[in-house]
Amino acid sequence: MIRENLAEVEEKICKACERAGRDRDEVTLIAVSKTKPISMIEEVLNAGIIEFGENKVQELTLKCEILPKKIHWHLIGHLQRNKVKYIIDQAYMIHSVDSLRLAQAISQEAVKKNVTASILIEVNVAMEESKYGVSIKEVLPLIEEVSKLPNLKINGLMTIAPFVENGEKNREIFKELKKLSVDIKTKNIDNVNMNVLSMGMTGDYEVAIEEGATHVRVGTGIFGERNYNID
Ligand SMILES: *Cc1c(COP(=O)(O)O)cnc(C)c1O
C-alpha cells in the first residue's frame, strides 16, 4: 500500500510543479513518520526516500538510533528547551523554532557539541490559537536576534496551515509565507538565507507547491491514517 501511496504523492508533486512552472528538483518530500513503526519507515526508505519528519523528540531519537544513518530526520513538532540536548546532533533540520529563548538553547547545545544547527522559523500565519509559531509581524525582529547566535543557521520559514477539507482554502496562507520569505531575503541578514519554505501537508501540499513550497511534509498521504492510541 505504501508503494502505491508514494507513487500517487510523487505524481501529484510532479503535476503541481508543472502547473507552477517549477522543476521537480525544487521540492523535497518529507515523509512524516510520527506514530508509524520502523517496518513502515523501512519500506519508504527502500523506495528511495531519505527525508523523514517526526514531531516528538523521544520518538525521533529512538528511530534515529535504530534506522540507517543516511536518513535526514526533520524535527517538525514543538520543541522544549530542556529537550534540545537530545536532538541537537540527530536532527537534520529543526522546523519549529518560535522564540529567542529556544534558539538560544539550540545555539548553546550546538556550541557544546561543535555542530551547526539548521533551523527554520515557525510562523503562525493564520494566527490560530491552538498553534505554535510567531506572528508574521514578529518574524523579522526574531530573525534579527537569532541570526547573531553562534552555531546556528536560519535556512527559512515553516508554517502549519489550518486543517481543511479543501487545500485550496489555504492558498492565501502559503502566498503570505512566500511573500514574507522574499521580503526577508531582500534584507540580506548575515547567517540567514531563505532557501527553505516548509509548507503543505497531505490535505494541501499541491497548493503549497504551486505557491512556492520547497519542502512538503506528508504523513497520511504516504503512511495512511494515524492511530494515536496504539503507538
Ligand atoms: C503530522 C504533521 C504533518 C503531516 O500531516 P498529514 O496531514 O498526515 O500529512 C506535517 N507537519 C507537521 C508539523 C505535523 O505535525
Automatic annotation (TrEMBL):
Q: Note the CDD domains from the entry.
A: PLPDE_III_YBL036c_like
Known InterPro entries for this protein?
A: Ala_racemase_N, PLP-binding_barrel, PyrdxlP_homeostasis
Needed co-factor(s): pyridoxal 5'-phosphate
Residues annotated as transmembrane: none
Which residues are reported to carry the modification N6-(pyridoxal phosphate)lysine?
K34
Is RNA-binding set as a keyword in this record?
no
What UniProt keywords are attached to this protein's entry?
A: Pyridoxal phosphate
One of its Pfam families is Ala_racemase_N
Q: Family per UniProt?
A: Belongs to the pyridoxal phosphate-binding protein YggS/PROSC family.
Q: Which NCBIfam families match?
A: YggS family pyridoxal phosphate-dependent enzyme
- What is the protein name for this chain? Pyridoxal phosphate homeostasis protein
The upper taxonomy is: Bacteria, Bacillati, Bacillota, Clostridia, Lachnospirales
